[in-house]
Amino acid sequence: MRSSKPLISTFVEYALQPVLLVTVLSLWYLNQESLTIYPLILLGVQVVLGIIEYQLPARPDWLLPAKEKTGVILLVVFIFFYSATVAAPFYASTLDPALSNLRDQLGIDLWPHEWPMIPQVILAFFMSELIWYWFHRAEHRWPIVWRLSGHGAHHAFKNLGAINYGANHPLEYFVLLVPSAIVELLFGAGAAIGGAAILLVTQASIVHSNIPTNSKVIGWLLTTNRYHIHHHSLVLEESNTNYGCAVILWDRLFGTFSDKHTEETGIGPSEPNVWNKFLMPIREPTDSQISP
Fold first, then answer.
1. Which pLDDT band holds residue 12 (cuts at 50, 70, 90)?
2. pLDDT tens string 52-94
3. How many other C-beta atoms lie within 10 A of the C-beta of residue 247?
4. Which terminus of the chain has a lower count of CB atoms within 10 Å, N or C?
5. What residues does 247 pair with on adjacent strands?
């Protein structure tokens, strides 16, 4: 038992992130026609990361009591239900036809449909993250975008875990869906965007997780939780770095990359309650330290 503990810790530190990404992509590839594969993978990723967080937490003081953890889970479930019933249908009736018509009018036909599916997925993944990088950077640089998107609510949590990947303000889901929609509809990525979405959600879960992972190799291209937790820093200058939630390459190229230990996360010395998080587009907490 003593010898297995270091082996498990080493696997989690160096191999968990790439193994999890390869696994979810493989599962999606083998079940592309099944709509149930998406919630099943999402649930599976959260269960795996949640168990590891409680067995090998990077910061034991971040472990939430059962009641508080349940509250965050219920919040994320509610927001996802809202996204599926409000945000997604809204875009299906407005953004989808607009982007598709624009592609037809401009005669855009650049997508490499002749490529094997996995390279198409990887291309869609990196393109979606490039678009999100600039959206995300705008949220932190322009006060009006910060407020209208409610992005401060996502940063308001003091203790992060994998479940926090989905703890966004409902308004922000209108922003989060745009990058994938642009790649799918304007550039014509089609089915590849499904695999890219699986990778994006898995990455978002990993980078918010309270797990000791190593960034030295995979961190040249992909965001790790060390990098993303730094983005959640309570210090304004640190929070204005590492905008790539899944791909850190864009931060490296555009000069916003930072690799430092993060002392404390959140928007201020205290965490707003759920109601005040929802009110953030209208009323920012008076002790907020990272709003632009």
1. very high
2. 999 999 999 999 999 999 999 998 998 888 877 877 787 777 7
3. 23
4. N
5. 222
Question: How far apart are the C-alpha atoms of 110 and 121, rounded to whole Å?
Answer: 15
Give the 3-state secondary structure of the chain: CCCHHHHHHHHHHHCHHHHHHHHHHHHHHHCCCCCCHHHHHHHHHHHHHHHHHHHCCCCHHHCCCHHHHHHHHHHHHHHHHHHHHHHHHHHHHCHHHHHHHHHHHHCCCCCCCCCCHHHHHHHHHHHHHHHHHHHHHHHHHCHHHHHHHCHHHHHCCCCCCHHHHHCCCHHHHHHHCHHHHHHHHHCCCCCHHHHHHHHHHHHHHHHCCCCCCCCCCHHHCECCHHHHHHHCECCHHHHCCCCCCCECHHHHHHCCCCCCCCCCECCCCCCCCHHHHHCCCCCCCCCCCCCC
| Nearest by Cα to 211 from 19, 64, 62, 57 | 57
The count of C-alpha atoms lying within 13 angstroms of the C-alpha of 184, restricted to the half-sphere facing its C-beta, is 19
At 107, list the tokens: 């005669």
Sign of CA dihedral 168, 171, 177, 178: negative
Angle (CA) 284-242-200 rounded to 5° is: 95
**Is the pLDDT reported for residue 220 higher than 90?**
yes
What residues does 222 pair with on adjacent strands?
Answer: 247
- The CB-based long-range contact list for 75-80 (8 Å cut-off, 24+ gap) reads 75/167, 75/274, 76/163, 76/166, 76/167, 79/166, 79/167, 79/168, 79/170, 79/173, 80/166
Q: What is the pLDDT of residues 19-28, one digit of tens each?
A: 999 999 999 9
